[in-house]
């Protein structure tokens, strides 16, 4: 579209540009998010006309010039809404991951667990029966520039009195926290500060109603500046799940959106309490990287937290296709570890459901070298 519109403008056209909708998902989606997505896509086109097509802004034909989207460097925080009945099990999980409790909030019912790379906040709630993701913290090279960009695009943010920074609410009702809070430590009671582990959050997947997929995609592509998404489908026994995934240039941030028209799929089951009613997304997967996945698996077992079992034939297949040593294959099977080759590196990981939410899968992994 950028090259085509640039040619039209260079030929002297100075009239209006309109949008015609052929997408059935947009036709079925709520009108408000669709209209906002349409406006933002036109503004983004103007921005790309200057960046990609080198089309200068002319007198009488001004082009939209927001601050450039800074590179997203990673996740700084994960905030979970915790019903009291699940609190102990979730705290055991965080301790097994090497995260260390750092104290309670002075005013809000929030407990802070710290790692070297990111923090987890447990917000006690009596509104939900299940553990849910309340907000995600993002870090970037210039948070102020990003906030100015959001404002220019007409995307409102709001301040957060509890944890600081600015909160961006996406069309699917995801809460993204942008910008640091210089006084964050002062908001919490002082406690013990042992050295936490280097556990970090590297990927998140959300399930959302199909009508919000396009509007939600625009936030990550147009506003937050992630590269073009990869797409795919996953065939489950009860239907097909469509997946759209973005990854930052450095690979520190990966966001996946999943949707399905089949109520019996993993996405449909996760959305069943709210789909068609509140039109909200829900988090279905978190990916954490740790220092030592074997030691983590042992701590999880000691805490009584069961990981997802792996069928024995998986390891037979792994032995046939991967040049792993017998020692490593035995280690994998003993701790229910799975294996992938990601990029040029070996990746070992385990999976378990987050206590208090059978639809929220946690993947814990480590990049490491294996004997061949």
Automatic annotation (TrEMBL):
<dbReference type="InterPro" id="IPR029068">
    <property type="entry name" value="Glyas_Bleomycin-R_OHBP_Dase"/>
</dbReference>
<protein>
    <submittedName>
        <fullName>Uncharacterized protein</fullName>
    </submittedName>
</protein>
<dbReference type="InterPro" id="IPR036237">
    <property type="entry name" value="Xyl_isomerase-like_sf"/>
</dbReference>
